[in-house]
Structures are given as C-alpha cells and as structure tokens.
C-alpha cells in the first residue's frame, strides 16, 4: 500500500509526475493524504497545493482551490479579490505565486486525459524540483500523465484487511477477544479486500457489542449495512458505475444482484 517518498523528493529538477491508480475505494486519496502530510514532504517543498477534480472538471474551481492553499502558506494572495477575476486572471495569479517556489501539487480523482492536459497547462515546469501527484481510477489516464510506471493500488489480502479492521476497532495493540477473530476474518473476507468497505463496517462494529453474537449479526447483514451508508461506500463506487458505457451497466447490475444472493 505504501509509496516510496523519494519519488516525490528526488533530485531531478524537472517537473515529475507521480500517479496513483486503482479502483474506487481502494485507498488512493488516503495514500496521497499521508504523503501530503509527511513532515519530510512539507520541509522539502515551499508550497503544497491540493485540488480535487472528480467527474466534473471546472477550471475555475481548480484555480480557486489552488489559490486557497497558496493563501494559507503565503501572504501574497488576497482571497477577497477572487470573485472579481475571470479564469485567465486566476491562472496568472496561480502561476505568479508558484514561480520560483518548489511546489507539490496533488490532483485528486482525475478521470480523463483532456482534463489532465488542462491541469498541466495551469501548473508549468519551473525546473526547480516541483512535483505533481495525481490519483485516478483509470490506468490509461495514469499512463498518459506519467512518464514512469504508476503506483497501482491493490486490494487487501485477508491478513492486511484483518490488520486494518483491528487497528480501527481495537487500537494499535490489537487487544481483541480471541473468540472474535474467526468471525472478524469472515467479515473481512466478505468485504473483498476493499479498504473503503472495511472502514464502513468498522464504523458499524464500533457501535455494536463486542460479542460473538453481535459480530455474527454484522457478518449476516453486511450488504444491508453497506447500502445504509450511501454517502460513504455507494457514493464513491457509484461514480464508477455512472462512468461505465451504457452497454455495460446492465451487466454490472446483474452481477450486483448475484452478489446480494450470495451474501
């Protein structure tokens, strides 16, 4: 799951692109946030900028997000002036405040090559060791943006999924009742290695009694628990569904019906 931080702090002066790819809910944004928050990263770069794209790209919103990040780290940007500026003026302001500074830009949840071309035009190469870290569900976008191989996120195996659940429910010491381990691992297996699903279930487990019967009930009703949190799990996965070609959407719905029968 981890990513080599030297991919961001390497000595090359050229603007390098680091891409994190993987399906929705697999932990791309979480990994990017961990990198963004590392002290070594914060000391290495003069300016850190985070923009979120999602499926609808609005250039003005991206520029405003960038300027908001810049304004918190410098005194050179007056946010009150933004509403009076058009998109081209905002772009000039972004470039003016990044010029001469080594910056790290995180572009979270980018879906298309055209959008990447637009982003790349906003944040130029100043040959000072700046970096762009992007996350995307589409490997073709990662390959298009990145001259090197993207960091591909994988589903968690049973061991790592169980570790994640224990970390969140029982804390770093994993001090759990022994009788819960078997049913706990059964719950993890039903989550199919997707970290987002495990975290949704963790939130539910924190509200039920730590008893064998309580956890068995969670295992039995797991699909209903996931459906009851549309703002978390289904909201994220739903974006991938809506992005499917129309010919594939019925196939996806048929598979989901079969999974409900299984679980």
Automatic annotation (TrEMBL):
One Pfam family named in its UniProt record: NB-ARC
Keyword annotations for this protein, in alphabetical order, are: Leucine-rich repeat, Plant defense
Which InterPro entries does the record cross-reference, listed alphabetically? Apaf_helical (IPR042197), NB-ARC (IPR002182), P-loop_NTPase (IPR027417)
NB-ARC domain residues: 12-171
Entry annotated with the keyword Transcription: no
Query: Which PANTHER family does the UniProt entry name for this protein?
Result: LATE BLIGHT RESISTANCE PROTEIN HOMOLOG R1B-8 (PTHR36766:SF52), PLANT BROAD-SPECTRUM MILDEW RESISTANCE PROTEIN RPW8 (PTHR36766)
Q: Quote the protein name from its UniProt record.
A: NB-ARC domain-containing protein
